[in-house]
Amino acid sequence: SQTIHQWPATLVQPVGSPLSLECTVEGTSNPNLYWYRQAAGRGLQLLFYSVGIGQISSEVPQNLSASRPQDRQFILSSKKLLLSDSGFYLCAWSGDRGQAEAFFGQGTRLTVV
Amino acid sequence: TQLLEQSPQFLSIQEGENLTVYCNSSSVFSSLQWYRQEPGEGPVLLVTVVTGGEVKKLKRLTFQFGDARKDSSLHITAAQPGDTGLYLCAGALGNQFYFGTGTSLTVIP
Fold first, then answer.
1. Any B CB within 8 A of A102 CB
2. Is the CB of residue A56 less than 8 Å away from at least one CB of chain B?
């Protein structure tokens, strides 16, 4: 069966510090991968998605970047965090053959102080 | 851009009552999913509907996809405290999933 791992679960970082959130998927190959951000109790905003290694699409201009160094690894980064980067970040995967279902990791609560 | 609007945004009901959550859009989706999310966790997939007019049942939950594949509804019969959570709809377009604004449901024992 497929599983998705996302870490860390919580993170408190000072303004101006770098960020690296990691997400890995097991049990599937060539998944589509996604990073979302969620405001408290609200819907999800798509930040990045990837259909393959090195292929990253960005939905919104922002202080963040994403990379996919391996087939089942997706990384969300920032060189210098802003207070506005605080939020709940979610990684997700879906199949690459038109399977229209996304499966999520447990999320990372990021607080920038 | 928010492609999907959910209503109501908040809902607080007594145990045993029925409720309906709506998910509306002006866009046509190839499929639509419903998720439930608990605080501090990732959303969990409940159902996927693909065909216009499709109805799916999951125990006390009934999901319907609009004929034009632009909207959907989630009906819960005899709500229980365990149904409490954030309900999210999501529409699939190509490789992307666009999420609704969310409905926060509280079922009071």
1. yes
2. no
